[in-house]
Amino acid sequence: MLIWFLPLFLAFLLLGLPVFFALLAAPGLLLWLNGQERDITLLYRNVYNGMDSFPLMAIPFFMLAGELMNRGGITARLVEFAQAMMGHFRGGLAHVNVLSSMLFAGLSGSAVADTSAIGSMLIPAMEKQGYSRRFSAAITAASSVIGPIIPPSGIMIIYAYVMGESVAALFLAGIVPGIMVGVGLMLVISWMADRHDFPVATRRYSWPERGQASLKAFFPLMTPVIILGGILGGVFTPTEAAAVAVGYAIFIGLFVMKSLRLADLPDVLARAATTSAVVLLLVGAAMAFKTVVSLSHAPETLAAMILSVSDNPLILLFLINLLLFIVGMFLDAGPAIIILGPILGPIFISMGIDPVHFAIIMSVNLTVGLATPPMGLVLFVASSVSGERVESIARAIIPFLLVEIATIFLVTYIPAISMTIPRLTGFVD
């Protein structure tokens, strides 16, 4: 009977029940109907146990660092730097939007933070230059998924926590796929710019002016260098790196750039706490949900079903990508990783797929789901920021989604894309 927990969970989602409550209500109801009251106690106790983890402390720290950077005007400096480098191209502000997201990804690791911070600045600016509001919102949403791919990444921290993988290896494996998504989006923009005669954002900056913009952005751009350099050099753990990022953001905001005030800190802390609480509650509920997955023997059943389709890993990877893409349309990346990672990971690892490679396949696919209709979270954030309807943004985002889907399959079938940097640095054999 417990095998019905997943259909019941999906039914609750379709009825509009929040994911956190659906994750607990579906297994709780089935356990009660099955007469397993003791397991209900275990289920809800695991909500706390799922959050009580030192590695997961990195998530609120990275979110706080992103809030500090945004409030301190650092996002504006990144946009100015991107505009100095790419604003003179046709479709310049659209290119600037993508490049800004790639740079911001190294600070926050959050697609939602990216959409909110970059979108609030660039969507109105793009409208003034003649872009439609729905296109501006669509490219903002599409580029924001780079946030959780380029390190630091909250969902990769979650995957490493659930599956026992190296956070540093996953961070390094995400660099090239993240850059590929950004470059692919820029190629689509270039094609559309010629076809629709997009405007040029600015005149071509001189090299001294570009140098000046680079100096303004220097300290923010050092954040990912400090994070990755410290982790790879063995100076601190990923959780400690997140705390260092917070300290660095406060230091440059208050004392170097002097764009952050002490009076701003209470609101910044409150916003970061609220966002972190949502994520950690979802992680806790998903870990409790995972307990029922084990009790129901669903992993063994699903593994048998998958292997009965084919024993060719290439075919199975294609089918799993389709499954993950569909799941990503309805479920946030963090809970999806916690629920599906322990089910799917061992199957493909036993077939010879490297654990880090499969982690990147899953992370990139579910991250793209954040911008996929009908339930993509960043679509709703982009709608809130721009005032455009979600349905309109969903139609405009399709060309960009096609590029991101193509990137998913390239990463899937060419392991060197994600595995080269971890191997060169010794984090993967």
Q: Can you give the mean pLDDT?
A: 85
User: What is the rounded Rg?
Assistant: 21 Å
**Total of domains:** 1
Number of helices: 22
Quick tags:
single chain; 429 residues; mainly alpha; 22 helices; 0% strand; globular
Explain this structure to me?
The chain is mainly α and 429 residues long. The chain has one domain. Helices cover 78% and strands 0% of the residues. The chain has 22 helices and no strands. Helix 5 packs across helix 6, helix 8 (133-144) runs antiparallel to helix 19 and helix 16 (313-330) packs parallel to helix 18 (355-368). The protein is globular. 51% of the residues are buried. The mean pLDDT is 85.
Chain-wise SSE layout:
Layout: H1 5-14, H2 19-33, H3 37-51, H4 58-71, H5 74-86, H6 92-108, H7 111-128, H8 133-144, H9 154-163, H10 167-173, H11 175-196, H12 207-232, H13 238-256, H14 265-295, H15 298-309, H16 313-330, H17 333-350, H18 355-368, H19 377-386, H20 390-396, H21 398-413, H22 416-424
